[in-house]
Write a structure and sequence with these properties.
- Helices cover 36% and strands 26% of the residues.
- It has one domain: Rossmann fold.
- By secondary structure, it is of the alpha/beta class.
- The strands form two sheets. A nine-stranded mixed beta sheet has the order 5-4-6-7-3-8-9-10-11, sandwiched between helices.
- Bound molecules: adenosine-5'-diphosphate and magnesium ion.
- The site of magnesium ion (MG) has 4 residues, from α2.
């Protein structure tokens, strides 16, 4: 299976990268680094010469440029050369009137895959950050239906994707999402049992056809973005 490098060395070294044409779910609390992970992947995908789209439902593109700049990442060079497109759904929601907001919400409620209708035909990689923004009014059945359809359509279009779902979204929805996707990574904080210090760790919950670490991978968010710091057992 072809692999797309995530841009996180520790992960790429162990797994070879994300499975091409499949969807990986990123979950975690606010501040756990989901957006940074998404950006890091989007830039890495551009560096692999893939047409990449970043769909943001919360931040506007300016926030993303600012975040990237804090790590010395030149997001603009990729948006300018056309490899990277940023679609702002947050901006749309902010601009419309009350009446239009409910129409927009209704569209989103009916269909997550409306995220995909504006994607250029030749899109090869997508980040959706964060699908949790549109789940508030859904029943679990509706959520499962819409989410499955989204994953199905991404797969039909052979798009390698990262779908971000925050932990503010119910545990039940997080569990439903976990079933549909090809792979899932959970970002969290925990207390190190030996040092008593809190640290950031990621859990490779699943990834089909891929060797994944059984242990938590410890990571930092530092001046370079997300950096895996644990040395993984089995790594050569
Ligand atoms: N330049 C930086 N250097 C170090 N840490 C940073 C930097 N920029 C952001 N962070 C850390 O990243 C966290 C936000 O990550 P983010 O990806 O936005 O989280 P999420 O999308 O999961 O809510 C911040 O809480 C901060 O701790
Ligand atoms: Mg975020």
């Amino acid at each position: 299976m072809e692999r797309i490098k995530t841009g996180l060395k520790g992960i790429d070294h162990f797994t070879g990268g994300l499975p091409q044409g499949k969807t990986v779910l990123i979950t975690g609390n606010a501040g756990s680094g989901k957006t940074i992970f998404g950006l890091q992947f989007a830039l890495s995908s551009c560096r692999q010469n893939l047409k990449t789209v970043y769909i943001t439902t919360e931040e506007d593109s300016k926030d993303l440029y600012t975040q990237g700049t804090s790590f010395g990442w030149d997001i603009k060079s990729f948006t300018e050369n056309g490899l990277l497109s940023i679609i702002e759904l947050a901006g749309i929601r902010a601009r419309v009137t009350e009446a239009e907001i409910s129409i927009d919400a209704e569209a989103m409620k009916g269909n997550f895959s409306s995220f995909l209708k504006d994607l250029p035909e030749d899109t090869e990689a997508v980040v959706i950050d964060n699908i949790g923004s549109y789940t508030a009014k859904l029943t679990p059945y509706e959520f499962r239906d819409r989410f499955d359809l989204l994953i199905y359509e991404l797969k039909q279009r052979n798009i390698t994707s990262l779908v971000i779902l925050d932990s503010a979204t119910s545990k039940e929805f997080n569990e439903i999402a976990l079933f549909s996707v090809y792979g899932a990574i959970k970002l969290m904080k925990r207390e190190n049992p030996y040092t008593g210090r809190r640290e950031r760790v990621m859990d490779f919950v699943k990834m089909r056809s891929t060797k994944i670490p059984t242990q938590f991978l410890t990571y930092e968010i530092n001046e370079n973005g997300i950096q895996i710091i644990s040395s993984v057992e089995g790594k050569d």
